[in-house]
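Lab notebook, page 48
Experiment: co-folding of the full assembly
Goal: obtain a model of how the components sit together before planning crosslinking
Operator: M.T.
Materials (sequences as entered):
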Amino acid sequence: MTEPMLRLAAIHKRFGELEVLRGIELEVAKGEVVCVLGPSGSGKSTLLRCINLLEPPEQGEIFLEGKDICKGPGSPTGEQGWRLDFVRQRVGIVFQQFNLFPHKTALENVTMAPEKVLGRSAEEARANATRLLERVGLGDKLNEYPERLSGGQQQRVAIARALAMDPHVMLFDEVTSALDPELVKEVLDVMRELAEEGMTMIVVTHELGFARDVGDRVVFMDEGAIVEQGPPSQVLDNPREERTKRFLGLVLER
Amino acid sequence: MNEIIEQYFDLSQMSKHFDEVLDGFVITLELALVAAVLALIWGLILALLRQLPGKGFLPVRFLAIGYIDVFRGVPLLILILLISGSLAFLPLPEALTIPQWLGKPDNFWYGIMALVLVYGAYYAEVYRAGIEAVPSGQTEAARSLGMSHGQAMRNVVVPQAVRKVIAPMLNEFTALLKDTTLVSVIALNEVALVGRDIQSKTFNSSSLTLGAIMFLVIVLPLARLVDRLIARERARTSRGGTPTVMHH
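Observation: model returned without errors.
Model output:
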């Protein structure tokens, strides 16, 4: 059996008294697109933040390309340089609020990490960033500052910025939730292309259409646990669990 | 009324001593500018030490906080006297205990030391406010791109923080500029001492008034500049200077 790209085993995460993740088990194969649905507060975002160790889990194991990324030298939760490098250079994340660097142009946002972290030359980073920004349809916005870009454009810059590190897995944390409705499509289209090119993706989203069309698998989470998962057609059209049915009913009512 | 004008605003006194007072004010400016540059650097170092993450750096954070609290609490005048009175007797290299750098006398540098020790602590607090005003999403974005804490601070957080605190920094500079007059107690010929000497010889305070007017010539435009910077920053953030949703 080939090793999955990502495997989570019995992940627990607590914020004080509140247990946000209660024993998550999840495998993601190379090239697979997993869409995670669930009500707010169900732990979806925390799950993504665990995977790139922004919020290291307290218990459980995360295997990235077969390597246990939670067990570095030193303390179990303390940040360790080598595994952070290993993880953060392989796992890209795009946030709901874009988090572009406002003091840098679109191009500089994309070149910064390859130059500073991977030690690429300015010309190489620039050429690669230009190519990525063209690919997300922003070839004419290279030298604009984020505040001069629309939300959809900013989010596409954020995707290009994450891709510039040549990630093996991309995490998307409700990346269209802060956008005006008419700007959602341009971002989803970029993600769709990325999926078609074979990127491994975990997408936390409320966009059922995207989950149905692009997702290989849909995972429904509630109260820090995975309630149900399977092919989109099964989970979205014939959910087995009562909680899934109720949630889908609420989302479709909107 | 005439006595007031004669005592404080005697134009003939002012013009007669103008050059002396101006020489003193030049020394005041030198003190303030050198001290401000060094305090800006020292304050940034303190602020960064205070922000170091993790358990291992707890003692460093503790020391930085302790330093900042103590030196914001110590009167500058007492610190000037402590340094100028005893530094020369300490078992340290003479270049340090009786500094004569750049052709300036030791009491100039004693004044600089005291100003930097105190204003470094003030500036550290200003930097901290700026660093804390940068949204945490910025650090998260930098860290998830693989940057270390230091890289994230240097490339992402500090450049944004500095932009946010230029106005309060200028306010601190105004305070520092005025506080340099305290260095007159260790016989440095800056503007207050020059004015006082003239006052005691002529029994007239107009030269001191002239010195005060020179301060105002610097300080008043600075105050207007600060207002404009604050207005500009406010316009920026209300337009969405930090990442927020934009409507086109």
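Interpretation: The first strand of chain A starts at residue 6 and ends at 15.
Next step: discuss with group before ordering constructs.
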